[in-house]
Amino acid sequence: MPGHFLWRPCAALFSMLFLLAAGPAAADALDDALRSGKIGETPRGYIAPVTAPSPAITGIVNDINQRRRGKYREIARKNNMTLGQIEAFAGKRIIERAAAGTYYKDLQGNWRRK
Asked: Which positions ≥6 away from 99 have C-beta within 8 Å?
């Protein structure tokens, strides 16, 4: 079954993604930035500024992406997979599950709004 090998790491991935040790303040800042369209999700499982970022947005992006990358590496290592495999799967799933109005980058690199 295609993609079946990803099931176990994916369950762990989403548990970890949404329970990142970012704390409530960082989670609120991320949610606010996503809702306002200042940042969006990318196909590789990271966030990026949609427009020229303020220092605060740059800080959010760097912090969240660092945390995500650490979790992706952990999942890849535990499941004998590559970081790229986990990033691609995470990006696809995060974009699929993003709230209406969230910006995301399509595979051609264009920003779109759900």
From this structure: 34, 35, 114
